[in-house]
């Protein structure tokens, strides 16, 4: 069997790079499975995976995290992406009971807007409320929105600013009042108190005489690679740098000659602008590393971004265990037949 270093360059490029040309993208399908290439063993081994797999965190704040997953298949990276989007649990308003709504916003539209408000509550501290389950303090949060608009007694007759002319002219997410149930007041207090993450989300506009009275319940990309095939010097260096996002290419003057070099391919948006210029078409190649994925996880403030990703890993593990158990049962049933 051939070692990695013995693989011809053109074959290795097909196996490891997605190549971008001016009018086509090549090598989009993965080929790293057994018997694809003679004398190359691409069988999956746990030891090889552990040796190649890496996680590099480049930026971490309270709201965002940028990190790279290196050495995994696109299907796994895509699974994390889809789980983060749709399956990491959050507490969100699900049912809205409208007792009175005389605003111009229809009940169903107002309920939809309420459902989009991020609620500061750790879903891990609540049980999942399944169909048919009764609402309890262990699986449900209750919010109340009771607000009416009135004329300000001291407002000038010619005042045109609604905020100066009326009381409660605008209804914001911060007007939602959390009504603790059971022992929730003791479990969630001080900085852990249940509340909307953002308090200035506009929900509705009211005018004198209009009222809202309701109650709601809440329950549970690839790394770019830019290869310069020959030196780019002189005026071409500046023109080359202008084809990329700021920070991708650096132009230095050495011994009186300008030279272009790639310093941070992560910033490249892969616009392929450089391939529109004939002078660069034969001296630069754009590609993406097949097993190197850049993740940007943005939190809305309920959970830190690193915790969101760990939740996605746990969910994927649960799915794998469930699939394995189903396959084992299927094999057992087939053997008994």
TrEMBL record:
Its main location: nucleus. It is found in: Nucleus. Residues 64-326 form the DNA-directed RNA polymerase RpoA/D/Rpb3-type domain. The keyword Transcription applies. GO terms for cellular component: nuclear DNA-directed RNA polymerase complex; RNA polymerase I complex; RNA polymerase III complex. InterPro entries: DNA-dir_RNA_pol_30-40kDasu_CS, DNA-dir_RNA_pol_RpoA/D/Rpb3, RBP11-like, RNAPI/III_AC40, RNApol_insert_sf, Rpo3/RPB3_RNA_Pol_subunit. Keywords: DNA-directed RNA polymerase, Nucleus, Transcription. The keyword Ribosomal protein does not apply. One of its GO terms (molecular function) is DNA-directed RNA polymerase activity. GO terms for biological process: DNA-templated transcription. Belongs to the archaeal Rpo3/eukaryotic RPB3 RNA polymerase subunit family. This is DNA-directed RNA polymerases I and III subunit RPAC1. It comes from Paraglomus occultum. The lineage of its organism: Eukaryota, Fungi, Fungi incertae sedis, Mucoromycota, Glomeromycotina.
């Amino acid at each position: 069997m051939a070692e990695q270093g013995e693989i011809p360059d053109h074959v290795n490029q097909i196996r490891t790079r997605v190549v971008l040309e001016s009018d086509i993208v090549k090598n989009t399908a993965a080929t790293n499975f057994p018997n694809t290439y003679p004398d190359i063993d691409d069988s999956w081994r746990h030891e090889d995976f552990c040796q190649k797999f890496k996680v590099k965190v480049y930026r971490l704040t309270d709201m965002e995290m940028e990190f790279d997953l290196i050495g995994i298949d696109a299907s796994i990276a895509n699974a994390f992406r889809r789980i983060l989007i749709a399956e990491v649990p959050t507490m969100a308003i699900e049912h809205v009971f409208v007792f009175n709504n005389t605003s111009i916003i229809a009940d169903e539209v107002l309920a939809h807007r309420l459902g989009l408000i991020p609620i500061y509550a750790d879903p891990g501290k609540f049980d999942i409320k399944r169909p048919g389950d009764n609402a309890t303090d262990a699986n449900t949060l209750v919010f109340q929105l009771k607000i009416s608009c009135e004329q300000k007694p001291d407002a000038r007759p010619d005042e045109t600013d609604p905020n100066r002319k009326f009381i409660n002219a605008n209804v914001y997410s911060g007007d939602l009042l959390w009504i603790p149930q059971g022992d929730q007041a003791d479990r969630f207090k001080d900085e852990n108190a249940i509340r909307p993450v953002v308090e200035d989300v506009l929900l509705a506009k009211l005018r004198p005489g209009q009222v809202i009275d309701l109650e709601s319940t809440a329950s549970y990309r690839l790394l770019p690679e830019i290869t310069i095939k020959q030196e780019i010097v002189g005026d071409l260096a500046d023109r080359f740098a202008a084809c990329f996002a700021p920070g991708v290419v650096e132009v230095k003057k050495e011994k009186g000659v300008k030279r272009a070099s790639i310093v941070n391919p992560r910033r490249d948006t892969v616009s392929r602008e450089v391939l529109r210029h004939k002078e660069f078409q034969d001296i630069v190649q754009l590609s993406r590393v097949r097993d190197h994925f850049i993740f940007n996880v943005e939190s809305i403030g309920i959970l830190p971004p690193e915790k969101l990703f760990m939740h996605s890993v746990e969910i994927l593990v649960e799915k794998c265990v469930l699939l394995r158990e189903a396959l084992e049962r299927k094999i057992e049933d087939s053997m008994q037949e």
